[in-house]
Design a protein that fits this description.
binds manganese (II) ion, binds guanosine-5'-monophosphate, 251 residues, alpha/beta, 17% helix, 5 helices
């Protein structure tokens, strides 16, 4: 599918979604187009350091969208209490870069996000759209919100309510914008694919995580958007993806 050009006029009765993810504290050069609802599908930081979260929140505050929806990704380590508990047990030496994380620095890190609606296995209704967000993804080197493939992930996807219009997850479903060229592998979650195609059938599914998969696809029911702004080399050069969807009638 082709993305909507950023300067295309919005059809009457539509809501314009601006989708991004994987900005990894590199938002300075990102040109943000006009729209009604901003969606960020996780990995807005490198480690979830409070300084990064504050900077991201300030940037969100400078943007003109009616609603800004944000979820965490595997890089927002401080948003995952179980990850942080493990890290403390291992005396912060799990990965060398993680020694920057100190217990006093992450308490209530979520409360630093004052300029958006933060979703974590939760939903919000805006402009008549039911939007659900979840940060979990298949295990990959033990970062935040990692879970084993299969039952553990399925239990998270089973929390997604039927009637969800817009699904936001950090990782892709199997087979949609999930190709990792250097591994010659599709790494999306098959349980997420089944949940999206057989149970939820949302209008839009926004994710990121696999930077190489940036783009848009459809299965005829759901539009799939991998909105990774950063490339695999962490260059923030992929433009935000714009999608217009008819605004549901509000009762
Ligand atoms: P990030 O560290 O930002 O979550 O992911 C960056 C890159 O790591 C992705 O673009 C992809 O190349 C690689 N990656 C992330 N998760 C996986 C995974 O589950 N399997 C494989 N093979 N690569 C992954
Ligand atoms: Mn990323
Ligand atoms: Mn990621």
């Amino acid at each position: 599918m082709d993305p909507t050009p950023h300067d295309a006029p919005k059809p009457p009765g539509y809501t314009r979604f601006v989708c991004i993810s994987d900005t990894h504290s590199r938002t300075d050069m990102v040109h943000m187009p006009y729209g009604d609802i901003l969606i960020h599908a996780g990995d807005f930081s490198e480690l979830g350091l409070p300084s990064e979260v504050k900077k991201f929140n300030d940037w969100l505050g400078s943007l003109q969208y009616e609603y800004k929806i944000v979820i965490a990704g595997n890089h927002e380590l401080t948003f995952d209490p179980e990850f942080m508990a493990d890290l403390i047990q291992q005396d912060f030496y799990y990965l060398p870069s993680m020694t920057k994380l100190r217990p006093e620095s992450y308490a209530n890190v979520q409360s630093l996000l004052t300029n958006c609606i933060y979703l974590q296995d939760s939903e919000v209704t805006v402009r008549g759209f039911r939007i659900y967000g979840s940060p979990w993804q298949p295990w990959h080197y033990g970062w935040g919100f990692n879970l084993p493939r299969g039952q553990a992930l399925l239990e998270k996807w089973n929390l997604i309510p039927e009637g969800t219009d817009i699904l936001v997850t950090h990782g892709p479903p199997l087979g949609f914008l999930d190709w990792v060229p250097k591994k010659l592998q599709r790494v999306g979650c098959v349980e997420l694919l089944n949940t999206v195609q057989r149970r939820i059938r949302p209008k839009l599914h926004v994710f990121g995580h696999i930077h190489e998969g940036y783009g848009i696809m459809t299965d005829g029911t759901t539009t799939f958007v991998n909105s990774s702004v950063c490339t695999v080399n962490f260059q923030p050069i992929n433009p935000p993806i714009v999608i217009d969807i008819p605004t549901p009638c509000r009762t």
